[in-house]
Amino acid sequence: MQYHAPTSVDDALRLLAAGNGNCQILAGGTDLLVRLRSEMGDEPESILDIKRIEELRTITPEAGGWRIGAAVSGAEMGEHPALVADWPGVVEAMNLIGSTQIQGRATLAGNLCNASPAADSVPAMVAAGAMARIAGPDGARDIPVSEVPTGPGRTSLGKAEFITSIYLPPRPEGGGDAYLRFTPRSEMDIAVVGCGVALTLDGAGICISARVSLGAVGPVVMLVEAGAGALVGTEVDDAALDALAAACSDAASPIDDKRGTVAFRTHVAGVLARRVASIAKTRAGGAS
Amino acid sequence: MALDRKTGTAPREFKIIGTRPARPDGIDKVTGRARFGADMSAPGMLVGRVLRSPHAHARIKSIDSSAAEALSGVHAVVTRADFPAPGEDVADILDNCMAGEKALYDGHAVAAVAASSAAVARQALKLIKVEYEPLPHVTDVDAAMAVDAPALHEGRANETVPDGHSPNVMARHAFGHGDIEAGLAQADRVLERSYRTEATHQGYIEPHACLASMGADGQADLWCCTQGHYMVRNTCAAILGITQGQLRVTASEIGGGFGGKTTVFLEPVALMLAKKTGRPVKMVMSRAEVLRATGPTSSSSVDIRLGMTSDGRITAGFAELRYQGGAYPGAPVDMGAMSAFAPYDLENVRTIGWDVVTNRPKAAAYRAPGAPMAAFAVESAIDELARDLGLDPLEVRLKNAAREGTRASYGPTYPAIGLEATLRTARDHPHWSEPLGPNQGRGVACGFWFNFGGDTCVSLNITPDGTVNLSEGNPDIGGSRASMSMMAAEELGIPYDKVRTVIADTGSLGQNEVTDGSRVTFAVGLATIEAARAAKREMCKRAAQVWGIDEEAVIWEDGAARPSGPNAGEHPPMTLADIAAIASNTGGPIAGHYEINAEGAGVSFATHMVDTEVDPDTGAVTILRYTVFQDAGKAVHPSYVEGQFQGGAVQGIGWALNEEYIYDDNGILQNAGFLDYRIPVASDLPMIDAVILEIPNPGHPYGVRGVGETSIVPPLAAIANAVSAATGTRMSDLPMSPPKVLAAIQAR
Amino acid sequence: MSKIHVTTTINGDPVDFLCDPGETLLDVLRDRLGMTGSKEGCGTGDCGACSVTVEGRLVCSCLMLGAEAEGREIATIEGMADGETLHPLQRKFIEHAALQCGICTPGILVAAKSLLERNPDPTEEETRYWLAGNLCRCTGYDKIIRAVMDAAKDMREAS
């Protein structure tokens, strides 16, 4: 196995192409090193560490939104006041992953590309309408984050492609987002259910747009259109929250596994959605 | 060994016992210098790794290691065929360390390699071809008792098991006295309920590790993390067919044990690899191996019948306990059956315990082995009846509490014990009267552990400059070296920092029972005190020699030899340092030693009190407040006594709420890591308040009782009682993970 | 498999070593450099016993490749004391009996030091959440939290 630490995106792309699909990207390593150690499957032929590519390590304002380099850690995101102010839900989701030590290394792109159905940052990114910028042999392309994971452990990326940054759009006027998850312990667990909500209130406190996203209740992150529908046009009052909860429980299609049962996840999806939407509403300036 | 009383029945005034000095290994541990099991290396060292069964139950038809042996860098492969036929007393242990005819659980060791690097060793394991014939398996205790259950062994049940039972039922234990049916008939309320707990792991943060070397002359050295290096020596010597004198075992610092390191797993294998290769072999388990293939607790299925009068008197207590101990006989169901009703004075009490095997790793001790599950059932039942009758749960326990002179449910008569003191202190404590909010509930429970003595050797040696070197044979898992130094210093009347306690290797002392049974502060302490007394007698003899008077005319007081009275003459006192300085000229170096199979360990009772809050929409349980009330007899070092109370309580919290072994339908362990085997983290918990009571143990010179184990016995029921109160349900199935709690709330 | 030559700084000292591409920083520290203060409790980033800081950032060394240490500043438990002078956290841990077996202690000390560098006056809750990635099985965390907060107080008063 070889280790490479290119210093430019072009060098990284050349190595990826030469690796012929047997090259693993290393950002924070919090999933990759666990996989390597578990000896499940074959060892990759090479590891491509992207952390020496300067442009991937920055958080940059762009067109009113934020471009977050693929090598930026969750801890760095949490230490960026302006980013936290605009997208607190995305940042808090990223900072729920693992422990302080994990957050010192883990990245949005890594969490996304590991494609666990229970990834914490993904529902929040999807609710925010985040875009992934993918570098490849034919240049760069931008796709919604929701189009990256295609199944547990699988992404839509080509063999010679990798994510160079995540773009969070400008936070709308009157917008607020939040993320919650259910875990048996207070920290350190994989989400049994995760929920991200981003909504926008007009001057009168009426919800004019919403995106509701669920994690860990299906093979990939789920955007719940009916959930958004339950909120839009309302003051996000109790009746709307009840309808939201029902829509989310309805949409959830979880499995039984060592972390949760179908019945439990279905029920808690609704419970969380209600709580998350309330927080998002408060952050959007709505009456709590 | 009578309790010291200087004047009449007034307890002795201590100078050092009861204070909180710094522990001798403190600096090494906070700087990273301390050497644990995996921290030792040797020149030319090879790396050893184990190949493990992927099947829960399978016949091993053949093992072909030729490809592995041919791999460059591989020095040896070991299988069961390399070991001599074992004696009966180590046969199961050997089979557990290296499977013979059958693999009996997912993770069971079937072969091992020694190679020049970890990478080569891993590769070599992949090249060993094992032909398995998978067999039907069983992991549930009740399912394993069914007559047609897949059988692990044939014909191993002992004579206590009646005919007609599954071959997986190994033993039946029975205790108690009186007439249950008559007692139940006298009750105003009778409860019949069943309880279940899952298997848990001790969860020590340090995986098993050892470094073994064996010379061509059969002399062997072993460095390992263990709770008992003398046990390791004796077991490995028996397994390898060498004498105990040929094997010298040195105990490293140990990163947690809690009972799980009172047996061997890697050590015989490492020695055999060292023997075959002629090189030192280091073996370290991964976390997955620790969970799959060391010694978790039993899972249990318990039926309780309890009768109570309307004013709270228990008229009869019956428990049938079924424990699975993994793939070999020896589940601690006997101790569960003995301890279940131990806190109570009962006219009619009976407990039956069934020892059952299943396709799971061989259970090892876990802090009061067998007791927590039994107490969970009994204390929950008492709580439920008390609530049904509208009675205060602490008052009900006080009404039935065992005391000095009570005939225990398991047989003996209690001397002075501290149960009532813990109950009264709990009742009068501010925690008990603190108001509760919505969705909050408070629970209490009592617990008990026998505590043990056992084989103990101590050697106390004085250096020419008056330092005291204390050699003992019990690995320090909780700060006991500090307590030994304190007891030696107290007894000798010298400053604490003049005593240096070391854990001596197996070549230095004869035999020591493992660090278990909460025995060390009691038994090693007792031996230390006696060794110090022997040294004092010798020092008095030397002073007498110097002064030219009779030995009987010299006493030891306040750290010095003194004439015993005016008739002995005017002689200025000789301190320990004074006598040590002239030891060479008065006969030679001065020492004291003591060997005993200690008896008289005092039982330790506790009452725990816990407040929980339950999220009614998710079933999540938060521990709001926890107080431990436990009798320590005499707290030598109060900080370390508190530490035992707190640590045991938190392990109990994990066991009650989140920890469990999860097997799939193929008998494969699903959660062999700290991600999904969920032990409590710092943010899950409040401070754990520790209230130490001291009702001296008549069997120890200072009144010491062991404290390490009792603290894990009450939490399961205390928390279940609190959650039951918070939710208006009765939780009888552990762990109380959120889906279970939510289901109970929804079913209300 | 050819080895990688890494040049780095550990506890202020220049260090270089050879390692395999797949070796973790923890493997390198323990097996190549003889620095056994950082411990392996799980190998999967779930227990924190291997905690070190890299460029001042608290991480699990079991989840970092040795090769990644190139040109970076690593700090381990071995560098926490200043010669004979213990760090206040180390002193307070001994004083408060915040360790029993001591296996988690190096990781917790490194993590706690990192906390106090960022937040000199943490609440009990903040301390507990910061340390949630450091498992301890012996103490129940009570005395650990007290020791950290007491050390924080001493350090605030000294500065």
TrEMBL record, chain C:
Entry-linked CDD domains: fer2
UniProt keyword Protease, yes or no: no
InterPro entries: 2Fe-2S-bd, 2Fe-2S-bd_dom_sf, 2Fe-2S_ferredoxin-like_sf, 2Fe-2S_ferredoxin-type, 2Fe2S_fd_BS, Beta-grasp_dom_sf, Diverse_Oxidoreductases
Domain 2Fe-2S ferredoxin-type intervals: 4-80
Keyword Chloroplast: no
Enzyme class, broadest EC rank: oxidoreductase
PROSITE patterns in alphabetical order: 2FE2S_FER_1, 2FE2S_FER_2
This protein's UniProt keywords: 2Fe-2S, Iron, Iron-sulfur, Metal-binding, Oxidoreductase
Gene Ontology molecular function, alphabetical: 2 iron, 2 sulfur cluster binding; anaerobic carbon-monoxide dehydrogenase activity; metal ion binding
Pfam families: Fer2, Fer2_2
EC number assigned by the record: 1.2.7.4
PANTHER family: OXIDOREDUCTASE WITH IRON-SULFUR SUBUNIT
Protein name (record): Carbon monoxide dehydrogenase small chain
Lineage: Bacteria, Pseudomonadati, Pseudomonadota, Alphaproteobacteria, Rhodobacterales
